[in-house]
Specification:
Shape: globular
Strand order of the largest sheet: 1-2-3-4-5-6-7-8-9-10
Largest sheet: 10 strands, antiparallel
Distance between the termini: 37 Å
Radius of gyration: 20 Å
Number of strands: 10
Helix content: under 10%
Number of helices: 1
Order of helices and strands: HEEEEEEEEEE
Structural class: mainly beta
Oligomer: single chain
Length: 160
């Protein structure tokens, strides 16, 4: 199926036509590092009806690894994401995130909760300052409450 056919099906679904059929893609890889250790990666992703969900399994031959599961959905209000990572050693991390844009301003918040309830957050806010130009801030907070803030900017093209 060509990219144009897929885009037409998605466009038809968004405009009230027939719902786009969910599609699943599976992939994998075996990676041999310079130290000779082997890592295997298996991934399964399903897309359809404005949502994406899947799993990624990563395992090394020394027993280390993790399983990541995730979901993402889109609506007129923005994008929401949820995910979980569980290590082979039994540690679990959950992530909740969302973002929305309105009137040239986009904002988002992501929270990761780790073992023992420790939380990390990232808050972003960007404003459009001109054609192809954006600027904003990203604030990260670690479990002890320490914050770091960075100013960001982006210019695409000539900005005319």
């Amino acid at each position: 199926m060509s990219h144009l056919t897929i885009r037409m099906a998605v466009l038809a679904a968004l405009l009230g036509g027939a719902a786009a059929q969910a599609q699943t893609a599976d992939s994998g890889a075996t990676i041999i590092g310079p130290d000779g250790k082997t890592t295997t990666v298996e991934r399964s992703v399903t897309r359809g009806d404005g949502a994406v969900q899947g799993t990624v399994d990563v395992n090394r031959d020394d027993g280390r690894g993790y399983r990541r599961s995730f979901e993402q959905s889109r609506s007129a209000d923005g994008v929401t994401r949820q995910g979980t990572v569980t290590t082979n050693r039994g540690r679990t991390y959950t992530r909740e995130a969302g973002r929305s844009c309105a009137d040239g301003t986009c904002s988002g918040l992501a929270t990761v909760t780790g073992p023992k309830g420790k939380q990390w957050t990232r808050e972003r806010s960007f404003q459009r300052t001109g054609r192809g130009q954006w600027e904003g801030t990203v604030t990260r907070t670690n479990p002890s409450g320490r914050q770091t803030t960075a100013k960001r900017w982006r210019q695409i093209g000539q900005g005319q």
